[in-house]
UniProtKB/TrEMBL annotation:
Protein name: MSMEG_0569 family flavin-dependent oxidoreductase
Keyword Oxidoreductase: yes
NCBIfam families registered for this protein in UniProt: MSMEG_0569_nitr (TIGR04046)
Organism ancestry: Bacteria, Bacillati, Actinomycetota, Actinomycetes, Propionibacteriales
Domain of life: Bacteria
Length: 431
């Protein structure tokens, strides 16, 4: 794949920071409109998928939802779920499918406004740009609670982004903290490998994999859920910061039922609230967490039933879920006897400290409308629920990229910006 190098002091009409799916989708749309730009990627294309996902990782949405602009999935298994290495290959092939002006191995370290528009500092020099698109994603710094410091130094502690496989961990029981998508799937991975798992639950909801003859994702797509803009919801913040539903695409796709794991020997607990020496304490909310996850799952089925009835669709009937296990007594404490490792599946936090432009709210979240900030020529892409459910995913980022490319083109016309001649530009080399 042709590569680019950059020169210190170069000026670009548009700089895109981040070469993941959001940055590449933006580049494709800019290229389609004839807009000159450069894409800066700190590592390699697909590095987030390559370096922060475990060995058995796979998508939780069907392959047909991989719809990057100009490059929809066209493999032999549209209803399957690509595994980690296939996802990396999909992105690498996408980057090779068009003349992407990509510079790999260049990290942006600072962004501020200047007379030319924006100054982008990197570990390879300083660039300026008329407009900048930030495609750095939401999963930047692993979040581990400070209480982890209280655990004995003899325990192996990993964040979910560092977990690869059960053999990576020492023999003994494993404590997994968190039941979002990563925590639930890692707990299953360990459980299937025969490891004794202690799983600390949270408030994440779950969703069925299949219902009434189709993948639930296919039903929701047909119902228009994924095309619904965030502005159509009554409480934008509650939607934007919603925890993802847990489910898996492993082995062709199936539900993740924590209650079933419990019948097979996995130990479940409520929220972790304290660590004191060799003892962990939990909130008495395990039953509430399980009931909430099931209620959300069944509520989604209710909406599918209503859709089927409204349109008179012929679909097979399916019995509803019945809980296979109930916690008789909620354990509120646990000693570390037998536990040798901890996997913290506690999410990520943003790190925008390098962005020295006033576009953040009191929580440090970028303020924007569909990725367009209040600072002229500065944009975000790839944020969860930036506009729709699919904004941060393979399924919806194309629409966001097209919208931003239109905004970028319109601003160029409004401001009368022309390519600046005589300034050093990127030059092509062969990787």
């Amino acid at each position: 794949m042709p590569q680019l190098t950059i020169s210190d002091g170069a000026h670009y009409p548009v700089v895109v920071v981040g070469g993941g799916q959001a940055g590449l989708a933006t580049s494709w749309q800019l290229t389609a409109r004839g807009l000159d730009h450069v894409v800066l990627e700190a590592h390699r294309v697909g590095s987030e998928w390559r370096n922060r996902r475990w060995d058995s990782f796979c998508l939780v949405t069907p392959n047909w939802q991989c719809r990057l602009p100009g490059f929809p999935y066209d493999g032999a298994d549209p209803d399957g779920f690509m595994v980690r290495d296939e996802i990396v290959a999909y992105l690498e092939n996408y980057a090779s499918s068009y003349d992407v002006p990509l510079v790999e191995g260049v990290r942006a370290t600072g962004l501020e406004e200047c007379a030319q528009g924006y100054r982008v500092s990197t570990d390879h020099g300083v660039l300026t740009a008329d407009q900048v698109v930030l495609a750095t994603g939401p999963y930047q710094r692993p979040r581990v609670p400070r209480m982890a410091e209280r655990l004995p130094s003899t325990l192996t502690q990993l964040h979910s982004s560092q977990y690869r496989n059960p053999e990576q961990l020492p023999a003994g029981h494993v404590l997994v903290v968190g039941t979002g998508q990563s925590g639930s799937q890692i707990a299953e991975d360990l459980h299937l490998a025969g490891r004794k798992v202690h799983l600390v639950t949270g408030s994440a909801p779950r969703v069925a994999r299949f219902y009434r003859g189709k993948d639930v994702v296919a039903w929701l797509d047909e119902m228009g859920y994924y095309a619904k803009g965030i502005d159509e919801f009554d409480d934008v913040d509650s939607v934007r910061f919603r925890v993802n539903h847990y489910v898996t695409g492993r082995d062709g796709g199936r539900d993740i039922d924590l209650r079933k794991f419990a019948t097979e020997g996995m130990r479940l607990y409520g929220r972790l609230i304290d660590i004191a020496g060799e003892r962990l304490r939990f909130a008495p909310n395990l039953r509430a967490n399980l009931d909430h996850a099931d209620a959300v799952c069944e509520g989604i089925k209710d909406s599918i039933d209503a859709y089927i009835d409204l349109l008179g669709i012929e679909a097979p009937e399916q019995a509803r879920y019945r809980p296979v296990w109930e916690p008789e007594i909620e354990e509120e404490s646990l000693t570390l006897d037998g536990i040798t490792s901890v996997v913290w599946s506690t999410g990520f936090r943003r790190d925008d400290s390098w962005i020295r432009v006033p576009v953040f709210d009191g929580r440090g979240y970028p303020t924007h409308h569909r990725g367009v900030t209040a600072r002229p020529g500065l944009y975000f892409i790839g944020l969860p629920w930036q506009h729709t459910w699919g904004s941060g995913r393979f399924g919806g980022v194309a629409d966001d990229a097209a919208y931003l490319a239109d905004q970028i083109a319109a601003r160029r016309m409004q401001t009368g910006v022309r390519w600046i001649a005589g300034l050093p530009r990127a030059t092509k080399t062969v990787a």
